[in-house]
Design goal:
alpha/beta; 8-stranded mixed sheet; 4-stranded mixed sheet; Spore Coat Polysaccharide Biosynthesis Protein SpsA, Chain A
Length: 383
């Protein structure tokens, strides 16, 4: 019986590939298959894979005829997989020898559709530091409240009245989890057939929409390599990355509309719009990207109560601006007003209204769009 199918898309990672493969073939869980999908690498990656195929008979080597991207390569691996669970491994990363076994044991213990691990270290050219993005806040809070239980347990995805997951150990990455293969296939949880974008986030929310049974095990170590040639770096300069991200989010919305109720969609839409804005904020040529973001925002609707003010006003400003110059004008105006409001908030009288009148014994303050006009009174002094 194959317990876990490890799927590794490979593209131009000759410098890191052997460390990745060594960490997989030396896993303490032996009942695995290792499906390596070469996505038309231009370096020596395929030769390395071919060499390792002769070293370990569990390695299955597949080669794409054209470069298709990370998500499609994972789909190719999933179509070939026979394991009870699926592990999507990135080809420049590596894991501790007990990583897959600890996750598998927990998955079987709780009969989980998904088991995840947030014990992740970032590798910056050999310098290892904890990888703790904002999405791990739930784990940090859990460790404070339940220090004896945070390493392993059953988790619950709760969409509460304010639509935030309270006991959610999932995270948007696909590479730190085991997925039950039957769960993925029966719910048609495949990646889009496009090369760039936000494939992990698209899959993440479609997974949540199916209310999976989840658990966590944070005992093993995942080492997440940070490098300049990664796909996230390309997201800063390639307009196709913006276009593909929007395509992924449209795919996610259409899928969740069918699967989910109105409350879930209220939770989902701000998350998606915030991701789109983040991708826009890191993109270097914002004028080039603006029209794509503008068109997307005009197709969707979010409620101000489900996001923070800064992101909501950016959403509104991009939506109402017919072009990039208009957006800059409105944005500069908004930032100027916000700065003025912050200044008057710090006033001794704590005056912070956008419009209004504030009267004291010595003067009247009139505020219009954060601009303050003061009328002083003449004071009669008595000896």
């Amino acid at each position: 019986m194959i317990k876990v199918s490890v799927i590794i898309p490979v593209y131009n990672v000759e410098q890191y590939l052997e460390e990745c493969l060594n960490s997989i073939i030396n896993q303490t869980l032996k009942e695995i298959e290792i499906i390596c999908v070469d996505d038309c690498s231009k370096d020596n990656s395929y030769l390395i894979l071919d060499k390792y195929k002769d070293i370990d008979s569990r390695i299955i080597l597949i080669k794409h005829n054209i470069n298709r991207g990370l998500g499609p390569a994972r789909n190719t691996g999933l179509a070939r997989a026979n394991g009870e669970y699926i592990f999507y491994m990135d080809s420049d990363d590596y894991i501790s020898n007990d990583y897959i076994q600890t996750l598998y044991v927990t998955a079987k213990k709780y009969n989980s559709d998904i088991v995840s691990n947030l014990n992740i270290n970032a590798d910056y050219d050999g310098k290892i530091t904890p990888y703790k993005p904002e999405t791990f806040n739930n784990l940090i809070n859990w460790k404070k409240q339940y220090p004896k239980n945070y390493l392993e347990g059953e988790s619950f995805i709760e969409i509460t009245e304010n639509y935030e997951g309270k006991k959610e150990f999932l995270s948007p990455m696909s590479w730190n989890k085991l997925f039950k293969r039957e769960f993925l296939i029966s719910n048609e949880l495949y990646f889009m057939d496009i090369a760039l974008g936000a494939e992990d986030v698209d899959l993440y929310y479609r997974v949540i929409a199916n209310k999976p049974k989840t658990s966590y095990n944070h005992k093993g170590y995942y080492f997440y390599r940070q490098r300049n040639s990664s796909l996230m770096k390309e997201a800063e300069v390639n307009i196709n990355s913006i276009i593909a991200t929007i395509s992924h989010m449209n795919n996610c919305i259409e899928y969740c509309k069918i699967k989910c109720d109105e409350n879930f969609m209220k939770y989902l839409m701000p998350k998606i719009c915030n991701l789109i804005f983040y991708r826009y904020s890191i993109f270097l040529n914002k004028e080039e990207a603006f029209i794509h973001i503008h068109n997307f925002y005009n197709k969707v609707q979010i409620n101000k109560d489900f996001t923070n003010d800064y992101l909501y006003y950016n959403y509104m400003l991009i939506k109402i601006s017919s072009n990039y110059d208009n957006y800059l004008f409105f944005m500069n105006f908004y930032e100027d007003i916000t700065k003025r409001i912050e200044n008057v908030k710090n006033d001794n009288e704590k005056w912070f209204r956008l419009f209004g009148i504030c009267k004291s014994k010595r003067y009247i303050k009139i505020v219009v769009f954060g601009i303050t006009f003061t009328v002083k009174f003449k004071i009669n002094c008595k000896e």
